Amino acid sequence: MELAKPQLDIGLFTNQRDEQLAFWQQTVGLAYDHMGKLGGGMQQHRHHVNGSILKVNHARAPLKPAPASGLVGLRIARPGLLARTELADPDGNRVTLVPPGDQQVDGIAIELRVNNRDAHEHFWRHVMQFERVAPGVYRCGNSLVMVVGEHPVARSDDWRAPGWRYTTVQVRDCVAEHEGVLSRGGQEGAPPVLLGETVRMSFVRDPDGNFIELSQRASLVGHLD
Questions:
Q1: Residue 16 near residue 56 (C-beta atoms within 8 A)
Q2: Is residue 4's pLDDT more than 80?
Q3: Which end of the chain is more exposed for a tag (fewer CB within 10 A), N or C?
Q4: Domains identified in the chain, total number
Q5: pLDDT at 38
Q6: 190 and 203 in contact (C-beta within 8 Å)?
Q7: How many whole angstroms separate alpha carbon 12 and alpha carbon 88?
Q8: What pLDDT shows up at residue 81?
């Protein structure tokens, strides 16, 4: 997989805009980037985190209940920190601040609860072509995906639901990478679409149905051809 940047991004959905922005900016200390409109009464508030982007997607209308995704936590490396700090945002989403290098986390790590470890081993290594750096730990640039438990995960067909909902991989060619994931056995979430002059994006899904966005941003690659 040809990356456009060596970090993963992560997105959550919430109805608590002000409380969430205060938490991520003041409690966690992330720098605000900008707000983008997703349509349907939703706004995306983007924050910088060690080269990655945390996307706080605010819905004006109440979000429909849905089973929790397999994304169960986010770890963020914090220079100068001597011990882990466990936090939870206003919706109860887990975030852990860790000293750089703690369990190889130098940027961010996305924690996954999975139905089957072997299925995820195949998916992240062979379908997504991430590097395996330890049992259940897969590297994309300086970001990690970490399998932290094997426990029933219910499949949801809507990625716009409360809580941690999707991971984003920034790629140089969305169409080629989307076709590549499908050819290697990945599941489609949504085919590639062009959004104005900003981004071409698609979704694929991991073995438990979690959504992974493949994003080709003009600001990173210079074109959307």
A1: no
A2: yes
A3: C
A4: 1
A5: 79
A6: yes
A7: 13
A8: 95
Q: pLDDT tens for residues 88-129?
A: 999 999 999 999 999 999 999 999 999 999 999 999 999 999
Residue 75 CB contacts under 8 Å (≥ 6 apart), including other chains: 95, 96, 97, 98, 102, 103, 105, 108, 109, 110, 111, 144, 146
**Model-level pTM greater than 0.85?**
yes
In angstroms, the CA 122 to CA 148 distance is 16
The residue assigned the tokens 């975030």 is 95
Name the residue range of residue 177's domain: 3-221
For residue 75 the two structure tokens come to 């770890």
Residue 181 sits in a domain whose CATH number is 3.10.180.10
Q: Which tokens in the block code for residue 134? A: 């330890």
How are beta strands 211-217 and 187-195 bridged, if at all? unpaired
CA distance linking residue 165 with residue 11, whole number of Å: 6
- Percent of the chain at pLDDT exceeding 90: 90
